[in-house]
Amino acid sequence: MISQIKQTGFLEKANFPLAEKDQQIIRQQRQGGFPLKPFFPVVFILLWNVLLLYDILPFFLQKRSGGPFGFGICTALGLLFLTALMTLISRGFRKLILKDGRELEDIKKFAIFILLISGIMFAAFFTLALS
Question: Does 17 have pLDDT greater than 80?
Fold first, then answer.
């Protein structure tokens, strides 16, 4: 029965050369599923937390009256908005943050979503900070 399967060529498909698209898929799978270079999310999250703590710590330590919304939170959301915007419009910025072989199409929908959400949140928190 195995010899009949071999005659059909079914078992020999593993020996076919890989197409260029197959090699590209294998390279991307070896890089991992996350399209950003590892340094970028780490640096961004650290900066994000520092900016949030700039407003939140004085509020919880009762060194500031009013709400916790101020310069730090608005700056953090503005930074997120600008990062998403730069990802969409700047090829050089994408080259800086994306892994080799990754393109805008890999993160375009996510960047638009982040742009929308951070823009709305920035407007809301900026309005609260002014009041």
Answer: no
